[in-house]
Design brief:
The protein is an alpha+beta fold and 603 residues long. The protein has 5 domains: 178 residues, Rossmann fold (3-Layer(aba) Sandwich); 88 residues, Translation factors (Elongation Factor Tu (Ef-tu), domain 3, Beta Barrel), CATH 2.40.30; 71 residues, Alpha-Beta Plaits (2-Layer Sandwich); 108 residues, Alpha-Beta Plaits, CATH 3.30.70; 117 residues, Elongation factor 4, C-terminal domain (Alpha-Beta Plaits), CATH 3.30.70.2570. The chain contains 15 helices and 31 strands. The strands form 6 sheets. It has an 8-stranded antiparallel beta sheet with strand order 11-10-16-7-8-15-12-13, covered by helices on one side. The chain has a 6-stranded mixed beta sheet with strand order 2-3-1-4-5-6, sandwiched between helices. Strands 21, 22, 23, 24, 25 and 26 form a 6-stranded antiparallel beta sheet that branches. Helix 12 runs antiparallel to helix 14. The protein is globular, with a radius of gyration of 28 Å. The protein starts with 7 loop residues before the first strand and ends with a helix.
């Protein structure tokens, strides 16, 4: 096996979700015998239960393979990437450690929105792109059409396009040869001071923080005293090695290699993903360019159902933020739910995955509030500031203007479903920027759309309206003024701050009615009547009444004068009024889910 830098290839696989990326990674591992037949299983690099259940990749995984071509041994470092728009951050981190990418496109579906987004990420970093057309064994496959669209729509050179069937293993040997011949070797200097990019990290209960690094320059050995440039922390390398994807220890990592480093780091704040690792004696080296920092755009409150679990939730979040650097959190206090945390996410799927991981991996029972985005407020005094929580929304009389975040939405859809997609975009207050007929059967739409309109149910409705064939991608485009109001929910005249949402004034009444109706269905009946109201400021715009549970006090009256029954009913009525004054309403998790599911079921 050669350790010569010129025989190392670091590459990533990028694709739209469900285009066969994980399956192709399995075939590459099989062909290079990186994993024995006994250990092999489908979606091998998707190690989390959630990934395997949902059929998606969430975390970037790494695997080293050994491959011989023309009598020369090569090291191939595969860095897998997620395909969903919410995990673009993971993709950008993986690409920072590569020299080339395999761009996978489904032979029947063709180019999708995320295909283009990920391709541009690779082009920005100057990586070599090898187009791979997958699923050529399907009856509906049309590789020639897909090749043509890759050339015309993205402008890729299709000369080295490889046709494969990841499921059947067709074309995989040819793909391995193309990787060696067309992806350049790392260009670092072996004799230069150590510079290694930390592109991923996770927490291990026994070994502390495990960092994944790409050695750009120099050599890293076991026992070295190292320095993290950004966090300004010093450690000794206790273990280092590479992943196959199992952890295999080695004496060191050379220039161009990708592997893990364990320094016994117990404090997760001592390491930052994107940091540069160097030797302690050369701690003055300049940091490597990391990758674009992506700020959270969706915010939600997470509260433990049991107050005693607050510290457990905090520890779980600290460990999870190391594993998921895009996740941000800070403490929050709610009148209705008590102590919890305000979390920042990259999108709604990211939010669902984080909640599920917290509940599964850390055994927590949680209540999640409705997601919201960051709004910019301009007050009458001229002061400007941002809010990410509806509870921070001030009195309407002191607000001069509210600005909402706008995204540029790119939608690819079959032309037969164009009418449904256009209707949906107009319903979501979208403004059309462009409509291109790429062919007789496919259309590219571009819309400027408020981000608050797409975080809940846009993706679900887009898939429903196009029978699953449309795809979407979006990127932030700044802020614009909007007539936004805070919609409060009151239970027996008390505001439930955790159910408040910020909506456009035109949609406030319809949303208030729908929310009151849904809450009436999910709240448990009490021994007293519950008034459910939706209000903007002091103005109530909708009301539902949840009737009280009623004991049949007249059951013991057999015949006799009706006045006796009336007397008992009047006595009961007075008791109900007293209970209403002092009674408190317990709010179940279903009430908060009602806000999330409004658009999905009430259509």
């Amino acid at each position: 096996m050669s350790s010569d830098q010129s025989h190392i290839r670091n590459f990533s696989i990028i694709a739209h979700i469900d285009h066969g990326k994980s399956t192709l990674a399995d075939r590459l591992l099989e062909q290079t015998k990186a994993v024995s037949h006994r250990e092999m299983k489908a979606q091998l690099l998707d190690s989390m239960d959630i990934e395997r259940e949902r059929g998606i990749t969430i975390k970037a995984q790494t695997a080293r393979m050994h491959y011989s071509l023309e009598g020369q041994s090569h090291i191939l470092n595969l860095i897998d990437t997620p395909g969903h728009v919410d995990f673009t951050y993971e993709v950008s981190r993986s690409l920072a450690a590569c020299q080339g990418v395999l761009l996978i496109v489904d032979a029947s579906q063709g180019i999708e929105a995320q295909t283009i987004s990920n391709t541009y990420l690779a082009i920005e970093q100057g990586l070599e792109i090898i187009p791979v057309i997958n699923k050529i064994d399907l009856p509906a496959a049309d590789p020639d059409r897909v090749k043509k669209t890759l050339e015309t729509d993205i402008g890729l050179d299709i000369e080295n396009t490889i046709l494969v069937s990841a499921k059947e293993g067709i074309g995989v040997p040819e793909l391995l040869r193309t990787i060696v011949k067309h992806i350049p070797a790392p260009s670092g200097e072996t004799q230069a001071p150590l510079q290694a990019l930390v592109f991923d990290a996770w927490f291990d209960v026994y070994q502390g923080v495990i960092a994944l690094v790409n050695v750009a320059h120099g050599t890293l050995n076991k026992g070295d005293a190292v320095y993290f440039v950004h966090s300004k922390t010093k450690y000794e390398v206790l273990k280092c090695g590479y992943l196959t994807p199992k952890m295999v220890e080695s004496k060191g990592l050379k220039t161009g290699e990708v592997g893990f480093v364990i320094c016994g780091i117990k404090d997760i704040h001592d390491i930052t993903v994107g940091d540069t690792l160097t030797h302690l004696q050369t701690s003055k080296v300049s940091p490597l360019p990391g990758f674009k920092e992506i700020r959270p755009v969706v915010f939600s409150g997470i509260f433990p159902t049991e107050a005693s679990d607050y510290n457990n939730l905090r520890h779980a979040l600290e460990k999870l933020t190391l594993n998921d650097a895009a996740l941000k959190f800070e403490p929050e206090n709610s009148n209705a739910l008590g102590l919890g945390f305000r979390l920042g996410f990259l999108g709604l799927l990211h939010m669902e995955i984080v909640q599920e991981r917290l509940e599964r991996e850390y055994n927590l029972n949680l209540i999640t509030t409705a997601p919201s985005v960051i709004f910019e407020l301009v007050l009458n005094s001229g002061k400007e500031y941002q809010i990410e929580n509806p509870s921070q929304f001030p009195d309407p009389h002191v607000i001069e203007a509210v600005r909402e975040p706008i995204v540029k939405m790119s939608i690819y859809t079959p032309s037969v479903h164009l009418g449904n997609v256009l209707t949906l975009c107009e319903e979501k207050r979208g403004r059309q920027l462009k409509m291109d007929f790429l062919s007789q059967s496919r259309v590219l739409l571009e819309y400027a759309m408020p981000y608050s309109e797409i975080i809940l149910d846009f993706h679900d409705k887009l898939k429903s309206g196009s029978k699953g064939y449309a795809s979407m991608d979006y990127e932030p485009q700044g802020y614009q003024a909007g007539d936004m109001v805070k919609l409060d929910i009151l239970l027996n005249a008390e505001v439930v701050d955790a159910l408040s949402v910020i909506v456009h004034r035109e949609k406030a009444t319809a949303m208030g009615k729908a929310l009151c109706k849904r809450l009436k269905d999910v709240l448990s009946r009490q021994m007293f009547e519950i008034a459910i109201q939706a209000a903007i400021g002091k103005k109530v715009i909708s009301r539902e009444t949840l009737g009280a549970m009623r004991k049949d006090v007249t059951a013991k009256c057999y015949g006799g004068d009706i006045s006796r029954k009336r007397k008992l009913l009047e006595k009961q009525k007075k008791g109900k009024k007293r209970m209403k004054r002092v009674g408190k309403v317990d709010i179940p998790q279903d009430a908060f889910l009602a806000v999330l599911s409004l658009g999905r079921d009430d259509k």
